[in-house]
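[[Local backbone shapes]]
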Amino acid sequence: MENPQQRLQPHLRPGEKLLWSGQPDPRVHFMPFDAFFVPFSILWCAFAVWWTWRVSTDAGPRWWSPLFGLLFVAMGLLYLVFGRFIVKARRKRRTVYGLTDTRAIVVEGDRRVSDVRVKDESAQVRKNRDGVHVEVVFGGAGLQTAQLNSGMEIFSPGRPSPVAFFDVADGEALLRELNRVR
């Protein structure tokens, strides 16, 4: 894990004070959305395998039909079932969170920075089932935030997602500072 304070320093405004910093825990893989999506991805793969087998054994199949089916099998196995967890863990290792006296800041990788004024946005706070990790979503609600932190965000490019802190292990300290700022 990196030093979040060092990564956030260049993004602070003059006079702004960093109150809390942290990173998502890359060991947390599942979230509530997965109760739906894991069975869906298994059914997707099963159907894609069945369909591919079916069109390749039919009399006179078109040459491209099995290839089309293999594309869906590959997408199902390589991304829906396994790959999204790898993508999610990699993104978590490259992400840092910061809470200042005015803003919530998320820095992903080297280029993507998003922030929101904490006092201007509502905040949804949810503790994970383990009772340790915390999720805070600023400004988003309901279905808009359902797929966040699932690895499926890549299927909605261009749609702005709310600023959010996911799978924070130091949840009590974050919530204490958030309450102080609000």
About this structure: The chain has a mean pLDDT of 82. The chain is about 40% helix and 20% strand. Strands lie at 18-22, 95-100, 103-108, 112-117, 123-127, 134-138, 163-168.
